[in-house]
Amino acid sequence: MRDNTVAFIGAGNMAQCIIGGMVRQGYPAENIIAANRSPEKLDKLQQDYGIQITTDNLVAAQKADVIVLSVKPQMMADLCRQLAEQAPECKEKLFITVAAGLPVSRYEEWLGQVRLVRAMPNTPALVGLGVTGLFPSRCSVYEQSFTQDMFAGTGQTVWLEQEAQINSVIAVSGSAPAYFFYLMQAMQQVGEELGFSPEQAKAMVAQTALGAATMASQSELSFEQLRAQVTSKGGTTHQAIETFKQHNLETTVKAAMMAAISRAEEMAKTL
């Protein structure tokens, strides 16, 4: 399975974290190619991971068995049409896309009826703790297994039965790191108002978030049960939780997540 040559067309942050995860998991660096217009990004990738690099998208695609489309959504149509017109043999290869908002139907419009996996990773993939939603179209069991192996170094993967679930993945995990960062930002600001230095407040909040997430991931208890364990009735934590409830935190969280889904649906229509 690791004899396949994988070409990343586009070398942004997400491509970099997938490449890093692959190499850390033992994927042969010589079987990975990155194509990008920026020589600086390519040089850094080659220096860090020892992969092949090129500024020519067609060269990368023609060498590859698997093509990862990791350019910005608004650039995707031009890239796909270029591949279809100038490297038509690529239609027989497996495509994986990490672009948000573009349904399978768009890729089939530009490339034809190719074998494709839509992937929706999140930014903690950069540290190997991400969640990636995967939706296959026309893929074999082998190709799904390969994709699973490819993303193993970035964290957990979730296979989806319906393409529409990609938008739900965006709301639950894709956009979610920003939700937590926003809460952590607010907590740090209050910590500073209480007299801690910015460095102290950030470290305290980040370590507490890490500890809570680690406890949750290692426990069989629900989030509600874990919260109850540290919430003594009438105590300080209870008072804080009651304040969250009074300000309708759950309603706000749901509204925010549904807004993310609505925006994803809008993007699918306009891109």
From TrEMBL:
SUPFAM superfamilies: 6-phosphogluconate dehydrogenase C-terminal domain-like, NAD(P)-binding Rossmann-fold domains. It comes from the Bacteria. Residues 5-101 form the Pyrroline-5-carboxylate reductase catalytic N-terminal domain. Keywords: Amino-acid biosynthesis, Cytoplasm, NADP, Oxidoreductase, Proline biosynthesis. It holds the Pfam family F420_oxidored. Residues 163-267 form the Pyrroline-5-carboxylate reductase dimerisation domain. Pathway: Amino-acid biosynthesis; L-proline biosynthesis; L-proline from L-glutamate 5-semialdehyde: step 1/1. Coiled coil: none annotated. It is an enzyme of class 1 (oxidoreductase). Signal peptide: none annotated. It catalyses: L-proline + NAD(+) = (S)-1-pyrroline-5-carboxylate + NADH + 2 H(+); L-proline + NADP(+) = (S)-1-pyrroline-5-carboxylate + NADPH + 2 H(+). GO terms for molecular function: pyrroline-5-carboxylate reductase activity. It is found in: Cytoplasm. Its EC number is 1.5.1.2. Catalyzes the reduction of 1-pyrroline-5-carboxylate (PCA) to L-proline. Belongs to the pyrroline-5-carboxylate reductase family. This is Pyrroline-5-carboxylate reductase.
